[in-house]
Specification:
The structure is a single chain. The protein has eight helices and eight strands, in the order H-H-H-H-H-E-H-E-E-H-E-H-E-E-E-E. With 319 residues, it is of the alpha+beta class. Among the domains are: 110 residues, no CATH class; 65 residues, no CATH class. Strands 1, 5, 6, 7 and 8 form a five-stranded mixed beta sheet that branches. Helix 5 packs across helix 8. About 8% of the residues have low confidence.
Length: 319
């Protein structure tokens, strides 16, 4: 290649200038594009065995589906209660054991701690039912009224023993007994005159009272001993109402009450009831207001037994 030095303000012809440019600036190399064509891919031919496997993978069998369902059902878990409080551990208490040397000194407390042995189950065991009779507690005997009415009729005619029934010595008990007789047992207070006329509070003035012999007893009691304030007050009202000067107070009971008392005496004494001359007894009062006869004596001889006196039916008392 020839190099020609340039001079200032030198002008060259166009042809020469082109040659110099061609010599100094070589032509740039451009990349050539080559077209490459590839052959078509080979065709894939499925065999019978491969197609079956493909179907088995894509579509599982019914047995596999049922197994999968079963496993899913069994794997379902119930939600747990998650508590915010920390769990407290439960401890089982230790059972006390007897000492080693106390085998022959066992007490009841140690025996109770031991678990009872389980009874062996017996097969083909026949059970026989047996009739059991209930134990009925015997109450205090209530005497028969018809038999007592016969004895009361004899007593009214002067036949049979003399009967003395004492009241309690305690004043408070006497007041309770008086109130019980008036409210629950139908006792009436009256004043009897020398001519054997009876006057009560519920009869008109100066008119005597004639009690019904079927309803009231002819066995009149006259109070002896310490007086009761309520009784003395009622007796004074009767004497003032009927203007009685000479009279004494008496207590009159229903006929059934005296019939029960006399039938009870005959039961305790026996068949020789009419042969005895005197029968003595004491009234006793229960906390609920029930009245009994106890400390019975026949001709000064003590006899075992008690007599319960029931209240009147229409009184409403439960004793």
């Amino acid at each position: 290649m020839l190099l020609i030095p340039e001079k200032k303000n030198q002008k060259y012809p166009l042809a020469k200038l082109n040659t110099v440019q061609k010599v100094t600036k070589p032509k740039e190399l451009r990349p050539k594009i080559i077209k490459i064509t590839l052959p078509a891919p080979p065709r894939y031919i499925e065999t019978k065995g491969v197609s079956k496997l493909k179907q088995a993978v894509n579509q599982p069998s019914k047995s596999h589906q049922s197994k999968q369902k079963q496993t899913l059902i069994h794997r379902i878990m119930t939600p747990r209660n998650i508590s915010t409080h920390p769990k407290t551990e439960s401890f089982t208490p230790l059972k006390p054991k007897p000492p080693k040397g106390a085998t022959y000194t066992k007490r009841k407390g140690i025996k109770l701690l031991q678990k009872p042995r389980r009874s062996k189950q017996i097969k083909n065991l026949k059970i026989f039912k047996t009739k059991t009779s209930k134990i009925i507690q015997k109450t205090d005997p209530v005497e028969t009224i018809p038999r007592g009415r016969v004895l009361l009729r004899l007593l009214e005619h002067g036949k049979g023993p003399i009967i003395d029934i004492a009241w309690p010595e305690n004043y408070v008990e006497r007041q309770r007994l008086f109130k019980a007789f008036r409210t629950c047992y139908g006792m009436k207070l009256a004043v009897i005159t020398n001519d054997s006329q009876l006057f009560t509070k519920f009869t008109p003035p100066t008119i005597p009272w004639r009690p019904n012999s079927d309803a009231y007893s002819g066995f009149l009691r006259s109070p002896i001993g310490q007086k009761i304030n309520n009784e003395t007050r009622l007796i004074t009202e009767i004497t003032r109402k009927h203007k009685i000067q000479n009279g004494r107070s008496v207590r009159i009971f229903p006929r059934n009450t005296d019939a029960i008392i006399l039938a009870g005496f005959q039961r305790i004494v026996g068949n020789g009831y009419t042969k005895y001359s005197r029968i003595q007894a004491h009234y006793s009062l229960t906390p609920k207001g029930g009245v009994y006869l106890e400390q019975i004596k026949v001709d000064e001889r003590p006899v075992a037994g008690t007599i319960r006196i029931p209240p009147e039916r229409n009184s409403g008392c439960r004793v």
